[in-house]
Design brief:
This is CHK kinase-like domain-containing protein. This protein is α+β, with helices and mostly antiparallel strands. The chain has one domain. The protein contains 13 helices and 10 strands. Helix 4 packs across helix 10 (303-319) and helix 12 (331-357) runs antiparallel to helix 13. The longest helix is centred in the C-terminal third of the chain and has 27 residues, at 331-357. The chain is globular and about 70 Å long.
Length: 408
């Protein structure tokens, strides 16, 4: 289905076309995502072509809904992502090359151009699907090979920032000072506090309903609620947890994989996409959110092996910069952060697993948010796979309780 571009979008695509050697060219557009695949914008597949060459792009454009923009810092999210592509990733590449790092972090897409105009925020990215990258089926937990690939990718990303912070703190501070807090960071504290309280209460009430006939699990969730609130309002600001730049949006639709064979079992290449929620925090944030949302019960039971796998990859990357992992970010400190953040990962799953398990037509559409409606209430929707959702949420609650992460 053809999509009409705005004047700003068309001018951006035309500029990119000329910069890439296209003079006389045709622009072909098609819808780029199903409902529920992307919540903050519109994805458009764009093909620029002439008689000799073709350039395949994905145009990611911010929703213009005034109601949604009042409910969420949408403009800030787009500016944040553009900043990472224009500044952070370029600086990381140069920094890694200057230290002759053998296996650099470059697991992101290429951005060809962007617009930062009010109501016209957009990014034009390479179309990874046309080069063989694929999304994981969001309704299935990931296998060991995919989990391993992502944890190693995160380790390189986190490790590059940690090494820069340790060896060149002025450069690190210059790069990250504008994106140190999350995209909600500049909001009035009291207003932010009220929203967080409501968000947590809503999520916990839904989770308690799942285990309402199991008093021990209900009591556990009530204790967990206090811990989650503390993390959101206090721990995120504690210098102890301001360790590195993190991705912050760790669900499966933000990872794309390339494979050597057609069985799609073992990835040979990874791309991490959608960097709108990036900020400075603990690597445990990315780890716990991703690990809990995508692991089978068997993987959860073997969680300590995956902690070691991640930290070994992180240590190897740090050593490439001549950093001593035991000095910069030892396993004991990482494990301590994991013990604090696992309950946060559990909470994130209450919402994201609904999105992962619902069908396209069942997902909320924030572009249709009406005045007076609360964005978080949109996540209280009904979907066919609710029984699967309940089972997976219960498994996660039991896991976090049995491992006693609350009291650690």
């Amino acid at each position: 289905m053809s999509v009409e571009l705005s004047e700003v979008e068309y001018n951006l695509i035309s500029k990119i076309a000329r910069e890439n050697g296209f003079n006389n060219f045709e622009v072909i557009t098609n819808k780029g995502a199903l409902k529920g695949d992307n919540f903050s914008g519109i994805l458009t597949v764009v093909t620029v072509k002439n008689d000799k060459n073709t350039l395949e792009l994905i145009l990611k454009s911010a929703l213009q809904s005034e109601v949604f923009r009042k409910a969420a810092p949408l403009r800030e999210a787009y500016l944040r992502e553009i900043y990472l592509y224009e500044n952070i990733f370029n600086a990381f590449k140069k920094y890694q090359e200057s230290h002759n790092v053998p296996d650099i972090f470059d697991n992101h897409a290429k951005m060809y151009g962007s617009s930062v105009g009010e109501l016209n925020e957009c990014l034009a990215m390479e179309n990874l699907k046309t080069t063989g990258y694929q999304l994981w089926n969001k309704q299935n937990p990931m296998n060991t090979e995919h989990i391993t690939t992502i944890l190693k990718g995160y380790a390189k990303f986190h490790g590059t920032a940690i090494a820069m912070k340790h060896k060149d703190p002025e450069l690190y501070e210059t790069l990250t000072k504008e994106i140190s807090s999350d995209i909600w960071g500049d909001q009035d504290f009291e207003a932010k506090k009220i929203k967080i309280e409501m968000y947590i209460k809503m999520g916990m009430e839904a989770a308690i309903k799942i285990v309402e006939n199991e008093p021990a699990l209900v009591e556990f969730l009530k204790i967990a609620e206090k811990k989650i609130y503390e993390l959101f309002l206090m721990k995120f600001q504690d210098p102890e947890y301001k360790v590195t730049l993190i991705h912050g949006d760790c669900w499966c639709n933000n990872f794309m994989f390339k494979y050597k064979s057609e069985d799609n079992t073992t990835p040979t290449s990874l791309r991490i996409i959608d960097w709108q929620l990036a900020h400075v925090n603990s690597p445990a944030y990315d780890y716990c959110y991703f690990f809990l949302a995508h692991s089978t019960k068997e993987v959860l039971e073997d969680y300590k092996s995956y902690l070691k796998l991640y930290h070994d990859a992180l240590s190897q990357h740090l050593k490439s910069f001549d950093c001593d992992p035991d000095e910069v970010f030892p396993y004991s400190r990482f494990e301590n952060h994991i013990n604090r953040y696992m309950v946060l990962g559990l909470f994130m799953c209450f919402s994201i697993l609904k999105i992962m398990l619902c069908d396209s037509g069942e997902a909320p559409d924030f572009g249709e948010l009406k005045e007076g409606e609360d964005m978080m209430e949109s996540f209280q929707f009904k979907f066919q796979n609710y029984d699967v959702y309940k089972q997976r949420i219960r498994e996660l609650i039991v896991f976090v309780k049995e491992q006693d992460f609350i009291s650690k």
